[in-house]
Amino acid sequence: MSAADLHTHTLASDGTTTPAENVRLAAAAGLQAVAITDHDTTAGWDEAMAAGRRWGIEVIGGIELSTEHDGAGIHLLGYWLDPADPDLVAECARLRGERWRRARTMIARLQQAGVSIDAERVQALAGDAPVGRPHLAAALVEAGVVADTDAAFVHYLGEGAPAYEPKRAVSPVAGVRLIRAAGGVAVLAHPGLSGAGARPGAVGSGAGPGPEGSDAAAERAAGGVPVALLDALTEAGLAGVECDHPAHPPAVRDRWRALADARDLQATGSSDFHGARKDAAIGACVTPAGVLAALRARSGSGLQRRARSSW
Ligand code: AMP
Ligand code: ZN
Ligand code: FE
Ligand code: FE
To answer: Would the pTM of this model clear 0.85, i.e. be above it?
Structure first.
């Protein structure tokens, strides 16, 4: 049975491998297709698609778009979208600047906490990529402040940690609309990991006023993206949910698969590969061929689609 890995990062954002390397690894893992989904950029596509033709594997042009809900980051995966769509290009350009504002804020907060890292070093580590917390984490490790990336997130950079600053971004519903308007297909990334910073009692947090029902309590215990938000995204045209993710425990995968099935959403699986920055290898979690076909059927016309994948 063939399968695809629909969520991988490269040096174009916060991965540590080249786009061509991701494609080679996916081919070596025996996958039928691999998507390149860097944070807020499509810069890795061309190199990856050329490599896909060389290695005989389909490369799907994708993106992992940053959105914001009640102060929490929610990530949307977009596939087969038009990388030249003006609204998409404008939002990615805005996010690039916003990421620098945020990085400078976090560097200042680290300074207040007595930790000094050099903004120029962070810039050098990011290179041409949109700067992200993993670049700050790398600078903290280099400076000997923490032993590894995990410790950098636990002590300084994670949501709720002292140096954390959210990205100002569009709402997840606006993000789904942006991806769809660019001819793409939208999938909710790692819902079990996102949304933890959402303010309790806020719209869509599942914690309404008045006596709390057992459903609301169970949802709060489960954490992750609020179901009310999933419903709003479904209404806006969401096509799938990334149920299988290396950081989702089995019960979380089962819960999101049931939520997806009940809404006729496709249940995808992907590694969220980040090269040396994370443990998961390409193909650690996969999407079955039938699910990939159902997603493809929801994308734009065949001609457009072929320009947005190497296949
Ligand atoms: P950013 O887009 O700057 O908010 O950074 C998000 C990226 O940071 C994710 O894609 C992961 O690569 C990484 N990340 C987020 N949380 C953690 C964590 N707790 N430990 C290690 N890496 C993380
Ligand atoms: Zn990342
Ligand atoms: Fe993500
Ligand atoms: Fe990711």
So the answer is: yes
